[in-house]
Amino acid sequence: MNDTTSVLPGTRLLDGKVALITGAGRGIGAAAARLFAREGARVLLAARTEEQLQRVRDAVRADGGTADHVVCDLADADSVRGAVDRAVELYGRLDVAFNNGATGQPPGPMDQLSEADFDRVCAVNLKGPWLAMNAEVAAIRRTAGRGALVNTSSVGSLLANPALPAYGATKRAVNSLTASAAATYGPEGIRVNAVAPGTTLTEMLRAWDDESPGTIDRLNAQTPLGRAADPEEIAQAAAWLLSDRSSYVTGTVLRVDGGMWA
User: Fold this and answer.
1) CA–CA distance, 206 with 224 (Å, rounded to integer)
2) Is 248 a catalytic residue?
């Protein structure tokens, strides 16, 4: 490969890499923590709820992986920078990051969403990845030199999203930030991509289904594969994008949606 680290067949995807994962206490982030560690990464788990982080950290360690955790509020700049600095303090470098943390909104038309809920969604889902990428790029520059970032978007960002309008808008903005960052930092050897999950069996989706019964069934009926994803299926896509096996991929929003928007 040109200016990349060769990866031999059979080698673990993330061998030798240090990975930061936000939103790592549950759902896709927790699945990513376990997977990335199995694939050879030393991982730092970040989220707001320490009890959840501790459970995931302990599960990773029980499987023989290397993991630690840091409490992090994605809407707070000092907290985000502190999480990135903690990864470097613990492991001496930062190679890759999965900016997965997000918050949902009460489902419904945009005129029924409170201003406070709108501000909260924007602070976590848009400002959070912006803060994280800025800090991560700086850490990669001063330690590993080259690296990769993956942001979690959503297929709900790609078309109209009347049920989750603020959520969809922030995720569409994340797509734009991803493309801009890819163009900006590509010359330095830092790749930036996003995954856009479809219906995925996370706590956020189950809460939506509890509030609006039948949501999961309706979404599955719109999906050619006819089912929702397990969180690890999304984590697998993120792991590939962060690995050297995707060394010529940057600026991409990869749909992992069972064909929903095919």
Assistant:
1) 21
2) no
